[in-house]
Amino acid sequence: ESFVVTDENRAEIYTDDTNDYRKIKIQFWYPAQTINGYKKALWLEDGLPVARALSKDMGLPYFVLDHEISIMSNSYVSAPLYNALELYPVIVLSHGWTGFRNLHTDFAEELASLGYIVVGINHTYGSVANAFDDQDVAYINYDALPDRASTPDFIDYANRLVNTYASDVITTLDYLEEINSSSQSRFSGKLDLSKIGLLGHSTGGGGDVAAAITDDRIKVLIGLDAWVEPVASSLIDQGLDIPSLFLRSGQWETGLNNTNLYALIENSAYPSTLYQIDGTTHFDFAMDYMYSPLIKVIGFSGSVNSNYLTSMLKSMITDFFNETLNNHSNSSIDPNDWEEVREIII
To answer: What DSSP character marks residue 99?
Structure first.
């Protein structure tokens, strides 16, 4: 189930329309009472606009990924919420630059099956495409993050983008408060807003860090190759005061991001853990394996088997949220369970 959320307190900085307000699309995954009589959901909820935008972004002929629009997810459209629990902890999902919310459907469905309500954000103009309706599609604005090599003030652009993602998270939390107190919503009174976790990839992870440092409604955070290089130094210096887990791909073992990542971990009042997963690329944290079996051949994906890696990531993510949000003491992560995982001590 998806909703369009407009924040009339925020001007849209990525269009030329001075009267434009920030508008995002969010999608809910949640445990269902029954699926009988309900239609299975497509993986790409926004369909052809996303598939075609992806092809363009990857430099492929426009039609190459059209088959993606027929792939089914494991979810069902608008099924009733499972009613056995009084309250449900909430996880907010943020994709990276050129991503989209359904790239993390695997994590969303896993968490929903375990009793979480998951809210995936499509970050407009940072997502390849955001289809608000058939006639209103917002495609990625590449000027939001120009080429680093030819842009002297690249970090300023990057900081604006990360801050926009962070503000989208805060807008989403405000919206969740609104629907939780509304008698018109299926989620009315069901969201445990004292148990909010964030899960973000790349730019989404950087935005999550900025949001978590500035908004005390957020109780726990997981960053998947969280791009914290452009996060303001004042926030990095402040650090996090909530449990946080950072998972780093082998591809990002070296690079400019580590300076701020290490400083953030060192400055955080609450223990912050960093694990590296060897044999992986930055894109292995998303469902890029859905595009084509060729992604490993062209180096888009690392050497670790995609199904094995997805199982590993699901286990680490759910264990961490179960331990920190639901106080399941038997859910702590043991990196020794996987030979590719090693803890990085700062």
So the answer is: B
